[in-house]
Amino acid sequence: MPVRDLDVREITAAVRELCITANYDLPRDVYDALVAACAAEESPVGREVLGQLVENADIAARDRVPICQDTGFAVIFAEVGQDVHLVGGTLAEAVDEGVRRGYGDGYLRKSVAEEPGHARRNTKDNTPAILHTTIVPGDKVRLTMMAKGGGAENMSSLNMLKPSQGWAGMSQAVVDTVSRAGSNPCPPVIIGVGIGGTIDEVTLLAKRALLRDVGSTHPDPRVAEMEDELLVRINDLGIGPQGLGGRTTALDVFIEEMPSHIASMPVAVNVQCHAQRHKTVEL
Amino acid sequence: MAAKKITTPLTDDVVRDLHAGDAVEITGVVYQARDAAHKRLVALIEAGEELPFELQGAVVYYMGPSPAKPGNVIGSAGPTTSGRMDAYAPLLMKHGLKGMIGKGLRTPEVKDAMRECTAVYFAATGGAGALLAQRIVGNETIAYPELGAEAIARLEVEDFPVIVVNDCHGGDLYEEGRAKYARAEAEQA
Q1: Which sequence spans correspond to the domains of chain A?
Q2: Facing B76 at nearest CB: one of A69, A240, A246
Q3: How far is B33 from chain A (nearest CA, A)?
Q4: Residue B170 forms part of a structural domain
Q5: How far apart are CA A218 and CA A25, in angstroms?
Q6: CATH of residue B170
Q7: CA atoms within 13 A on the CB side of A94
Q8: Do A243 and B105 touch (CB under 8 A)?
Q9: B163 falls within a domain
């Protein structure tokens, strides 16, 4: 198969556009889930909050302004076809330039601090992006941008369980994470769970799980059942919209698995606020 | 939900009349301040120096907006997580702060200070930054412009919608609301 040349300026332009539109336009699946939750919620305060969130998404889309002032750390998933030859620069530089332009031109907040252990200086352009690259078959480049806010990310957890703890231990770790978080991560939340791998891979697995559509069913019926069970337990916590009490604490729970060491059972829980902003484009 | 309408600065009488779960609409001036600004305010108080705004009766909004588009008063402007300001809040209340707007849990020390100092904690809807920005009609940076989104700004708000979470009588909507809608078996399978 011939190698396809792709100018990295196309990547920069695509990332710029993804950063802006992901922050202005709430994905349809999340929007529909908020509308449905508003109709089903038992708590009057909860209905009020959910109604505000739907109206907020409408205003952001109409006026072309960010859904939330925390326009996030720019997490970019790049799936690069192995028959693509990038020309004109490096992938990482092209992605960062796209983030720089998107956050500038789109009036998005710059929320990245360098030297976080001491100076905590704002980098002023929201770079560097978090870039996860995978090499895939084909001659296309697929880019996904996720705007990850700090409040929900802060409530996430990594749990190194014993294999003997089984599903009871795993599910308890997830419920405990959401319970502890309470009102902090802007519920109703979406929960990404990674099981297996190593500490680096399991957290990435949990983050990738968040890219699934709200309301989607896992192809493995056993996992789908685990997800359903967790969603019921989480909503039974009563935390509710914004933690003010109610029956809608989470919109969905997504679990992804990968092989683990025979001695290990890592469980990562990535907490996502209701403003689940992500968008994908293929070049 | 019918909202109680209040205006800032707040008096002790107004604060005492607010109870956990009340829907409230705030009109008047509130001060935008988050992590870095709080650190500086507390340093000024400890050094006995003058603050950039009058703290007596003041309401602080834990918020760092996105940049305003040309022609707009402010960018998106929803609350940030209040817990990061817990280390600073009791001292500010002892010096006159009456109201805090944010989202998320407070420590027992902050709740104790609210009872002792007659202060109130309001939740605004996190992630509703585009909607809340429409209730902000004035915006002037008054201190630390070098902090960007973390600067202190004097915001004029009109009918700004919030819910009372912690009142000065010990009421806590995060606890009461959750208990009301929880199913007993949820925490432990």
Answers
A1: 4-23+67-147, 151-277
A2: A69
A3: 14
A4: yes
A5: 25
A6: 3.20.130.10
A7: 18
A8: yes
A9: yes
**How many distinct structural domains can be found in chain B?**
1
Residue of B nearest to A43 (CA): B181
User: What residue type is A41 in one-letter code?
Assistant: E
Residue B157 lies in a domain: yes
Task: Report residue B118 as tokens.
Answer: 């007659």
Do residues B173 and A162 lie in contact, with contact meaning Cβ atoms separated by under 8 Å? no
* Residue B129 maps to a domain: yes
Peptide bond into B108 cis (omega under 30): no
Conformation bin of residue A70: beta by default, left when phi > 0, alpha when psi is -120 to 50 = beta
Q: Which residue reads 């960062």 in tokens?
A: A96
Closest residue to B66, CB basis, from A66, A171, A186: A66
b/e string for B155-165 if b means 16 or more Cβ within 10 A? bbbeebbbbbb
Q: Residues A204, A256: contact at Cβ < 8 Å?
A: no
Provide the ipTM: 0.93
pLDDT by residue for chain B (189 residues), tens digit each? 689 999 999 999 999 999 999 999 999 999 999 999 999 999 999 999 999 999 999 999 999 999 999 999 999 999 999 999 999 999 999 999 999 999 999 999 999 999 999 999 999 999 999 999 999 999 999 999 988 888 999 999 999 999 999 999 999 999 999 999 999 766 654
Q: Kindly give the pairing relationship between strand A189-197 and strand A265-272.
A: antiparallel
pLDDT digits (tens, 9 = 90+) for A192-235: 999 999 999 999 999 999 999 999 999 999 999 999 999 999 99
Chain B residues close to A110, C-beta within 8 Å: 148-149
Task: Name which of A56, A238, A242 is nearest B182 (Cβ-Cβ).
Answer: A238
Chain B positions touching A71 (Cβ under 8 A) are 66, 76
- Taking an 8 Å cut-off on Cβ atoms, the answer to whether A239 and B178 are in contact is yes
φ and ψ of B124, to 5 deg: -100, 165
Place of tokens 């201190």: B143
